[in-house]
Amino acid sequence: MLHPLPLTRLSPPTFWRCEPNWSWVSPKLADHLLWCVLDGRGHMELDGAHQDLSPGACAVFQPGDAPRATHDPRRRLLVFGMHFETSQYGVVPEPRWGEVMDRELLNVLARTSDSAYRRGDALGRRQAELCLEQLIGLIWDAVHNLTRPNTDAQVDEVARQLRQDPGRDWTVGEMAHKAALSRAQFTRRFTKQFGMSPAQYLIQARIDRAHQLLTESGMTVTQTATALGYTDVPYFSRQYKQRTGRSPSQEH
């Protein structure tokens, strides 16, 4: 179990696009090192263990580790990292690396850590430390949470867009196009990941948003139905009650 890190030193967070002829043969590290791939392709080795590198591949190294890495000069690695020292035991996962599935969060934390630290004030340093803790937590989850389902990144991105804008006039064809899949492939992979068809998932996303609008925004049932793409208010009301057990009018 991870606890807040008692940090004694934190180096400036850094981004670097590895040079075409780059390779890394590290001497034994004197401190801990967070190392995250944001773009590109490569390969890493540590103590006889090998890891392909692609966006989302992240590692936490400990003092004494001596990693080695190379990359494809046509797909140069973009790496975010920082050195740190801590007295916290067990901060380093085993194996050292894992694949962080939420690339968006990974990039946000990396950018926030960098910009906050470079402000040069106490709050900025604390923000950078919190980002470091969150990044280490993501890597621990990637390494140890073996029960989590494998996510289909293309399908997951479309589902995220559905949740963000459920009132849009979505079609399965458009969803499949966004995932760069055929309709049949997309529907099969979507249903496997979420346990329901894309159409049913969209309905649920609309009902979830309708509940929020009805209980928090002061919008009427008609206004809510219209906002979420329903032209038939009674039909919206039936769908809402079927999925929530309550009529929309009862939410006011």
TrEMBL record:
<dbReference type="InterPro" id="IPR037923">
    <property type="entry name" value="HTH-like"/>
</dbReference>
<protein>
    <recommendedName>
        <fullName>HTH araC/xylS-type domain-containing protein</fullName>
    </recommendedName>
</protein>
<dbReference type="InterPro" id="IPR018060">
    <property type="entry name" value="HTH_AraC"/>
</dbReference>
<dbReference type="Pfam" id="PF12833">
    <property type="entry name" value="HTH_18"/>
</dbReference>
<keyword id="KW-0805">Transcription regulation</keyword>
<feature type="domain" description="HTH araC/xylS-type">
    <location>
        <begin position="156"/>
        <end position="252"/>
    </location>
</feature>
<dbReference type="InterPro" id="IPR018062">
    <property type="entry name" value="HTH_AraC-typ_CS"/>
</dbReference>
<keyword id="KW-0238">DNA-binding</keyword>
<keyword id="KW-0963">Cytoplasm</keyword>
<dbReference type="InterPro" id="IPR009057">
    <property type="entry name" value="Homeodomain-like_sf"/>
</dbReference>
<dbReference type="InterPro" id="IPR050204">
    <property type="entry name" value="AraC_XylS_family_regulators"/>
</dbReference>
<keyword id="KW-0010">Activator</keyword>
<keyword id="KW-0804">Transcription</keyword>
